[in-house]
Amino acid sequence: MNETRPRTALLVGASGLVGSHCLKALLARREYQVVTALVRRPLPIEHPKLVQQVIDFEQLEEREGLFKAEDIFCCLGTTMKKAGSQEAFTRVDHDYPLEIARLAARQGARQFLMVSALGADTSSRIFYNRVKGQVEEAISDLTFEAVHIFRPSLIMGRRPKFRPVEWLAMILVSTIKPLMIGPLRRYRPIKAAIIAQAMVGIALEDRRGVNLFESHQIQENYDRQVPAAGHSGG
Please, what is the Cα angle at 210 between 148 and 2, to 5 degrees? Predict the structure, then answer.
């Protein structure tokens, strides 16, 4: 990793749970000289390195010039309930990320880092997992030097809108987490902040090829990058 070379990052999904932490992590790293956030509406954040670009995701190709950055971080995602239909879900979780990746690749981006989901699989019978697998596969086939795919299990963190079912699930899974060892490690819940920190750290390692990280591997990378904080995300 070249710590002195200034870098540029492009972040999509900065208003979401993982994306908001990713933005903070990028702005805190001295390696990044410019961090561009593509947003639907301006974020209440000001920083000397931050450039906000308000865009219409239905007209991405018209703004292709904005996608010129070394490292692309895609934290876009929705839920079936919020999307309201399979078509709308596919638009947000498949079509937008793929179009962003294509435009960034054409602009010479070196690597693409994306948040996916545990269980992503093109042959899955579960619609959600199948769409996630399809977008992973499509983006992996593009001309990036590296594609890093993060497949967390249950993502923990404070969301703007309270989700009671998710809150109950986090309490339950957190209780049994110490018992989730061996093959069950991949199902461990993980904090959004840890996912974000791991993403930025891995980007700065300049790995090559297609790399997959499930929850326990994301945690392991975070612990390796920040030894002193090794137990904070356990």
Answer: 65
pLDDT score of 104 more than 80: yes
- The pLDDT of 102-125, averaged and rounded, is 97
CA distances from 202 to 99, 136, 146 (A): 23, 18, 11
Active site residues: 128, 132
- Exposure on the CB side of residue 135, measured as CA atoms within 13 A: 33
**Which sequence spans correspond to the domains of the chain?**
7-222
Which stretches of the chain are assigned E, i.e. beta strand? 7-12, 32-39, 50-54, 71-74, 111-115, 146-151, 155-156, 190-191, 209-214
Q: Domain 7-222, CATH 3.90.1150.10 — does that match? A: no
Question: Residue 229: which pLDDT band, with cuts at 50, 70 and 90?
Answer: very low
3 state DSSP class of 104: helix
